[in-house]
């Protein structure tokens, strides 16, 4: 018998297999739960600076997108993950496996769209917090996404030609914290330890995606958190995202770079706490 949202009910074995495949971890017991979704090129360890600053006595769920971190690559299907839809299906399935309700998605970068797409599949998502997210990364007419298609193709070519060189080149640019070399090195390590072929596929699915048409269908309260300077997501793209979601607001943080949860975790944690106080009352 299907669930109220039409998705098939998972068996006990299916749930365990799914959670193990994504290296899912649950800490704490308080609800509504916070589900932390990492972005392209990283894994759940990227949240290490933020999690101790999140509201206490709260259930926190972390997992790795398929093909990232400690996920089981035996479950990776190139066709399923050629677009963000496959990752959104995974998220909806994980929420069902953990029987989470009214959960808050804290989603970085491309995971913002993954979480939004999942919110159209399941009623288990109560609110979205997007950090450095974008509905479209490519410039398109009057729309400013930040990249030309040729830029992305060059990035993909570099990943294929010299994956370690790509990691060392990209990390300092997107971190944008030159005075903090330790953070840059942490990001280089995160990029370079991932599977090159799978990461390149995730990059293509990310940077070639266009989910602007889905924004208006989102019905859950949404916070768009954006650094004041981010080479991956220009402010125009962040404003477009917030304006396109019916119940969303944009908050620009006094920090720079695409990884504020790593470089400015106190600022991010304070913004999350304020939003939860507004929407969980």
Characterize this entry briefly.
This protein has helices at 12-21, 84-97, 111-119, 149-161, 163-175, 181-192, 196-207, 235-244, 260-263, 265-279; strands at residues 25-27, 34-37, 60-62, 103-108, 125-131, 222-229, 248-256.
Keyword list:
281 residues; alpha/beta; Rossmann fold; seven-stranded mixed sheet; 40% helix
Order of neighbouring strands in the sheet with most strands: 1-3-2-4-5-6-7
Strand proportion: 5-15%
Task: Using the CA coordinates, give the radius of gyration.
Answer: 18 Å
Q: How large is the count of helical segments?
A: 10
At the fourth level of CATH, the homologous superfamily of the domain at 12-136 and 211-279 is Alpha/Beta hydrolase fold, catalytic domain
Biggest sheet character: 7 strands, mixed
Inertia-based shape? globular
Number of strands: 7
Structural class: alpha/beta
CATH first level of the domain at 12-136 and 211-279: which class?
Alpha Beta
Domain AB hydrolase-1: 32-264
Organism: Caulobacter vibrioides OR37
Keywords: Acyltransferase, Hydrolase, Transferase
GO molecular function: acyltransferase activity; hydrolase activity
């Amino acid at each position: 018998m299907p669930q109220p949202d039409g998705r098939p009910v998972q068996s006990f074995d299916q749930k365990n297999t799914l959670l193990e495949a994504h290296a899912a971890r649950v800490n704490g017991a308080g609800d509504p739960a916070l589900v932390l979704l990492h972005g392209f090129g990283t894994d759940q360890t990227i949240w290490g600076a933020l999690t101790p600053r999140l509201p206490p006595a709260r259930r926190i769920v972390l997992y790795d997108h398929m093909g990232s971190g400690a996920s089981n690559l035996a479950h990776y299907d190139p066709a399923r993950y050629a677009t963000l839809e496959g990752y959104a299906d995974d998220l909806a399935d994980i929420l069902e496996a953990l029987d989470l309700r009214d959960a808050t998605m804290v989603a970085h970068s491309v995971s913002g769209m993954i979480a939004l797409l999942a919110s159209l599949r399941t009623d288990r998502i109560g609110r979205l917090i997007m950090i450095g997210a974008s509905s479209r990364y490519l410039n398109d007419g009057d729309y400013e996404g930040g990249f030309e298609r040729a830029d992305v193709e060059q990035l993909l070519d570099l990943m294929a030609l010299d994956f370690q060189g790509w990691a060392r080149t990209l990390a300092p640019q997107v971190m944008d914290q030159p005075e903090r070399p330790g953070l840059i090195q942490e990001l280089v390590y995160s990029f370079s330890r991932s599977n090159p072929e799978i990461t390149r596929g995730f990059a293509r699915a990310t940077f070639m995606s266009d989910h602007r048409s889905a924004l208006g269908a989102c019905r859950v309260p949404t916070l768009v958190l954006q650094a004041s300077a981010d080479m991956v997501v220009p402010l125009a793209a962040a404003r477009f995202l917030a304006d396109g979601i019916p119940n969303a607001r944009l908050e620009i943080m006094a920090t720079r770079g695409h990884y504020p949860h790593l470089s400015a975790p106190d600022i991010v944690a304070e913004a999350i706490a304020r939003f939860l106080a507004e929407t969980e009352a």
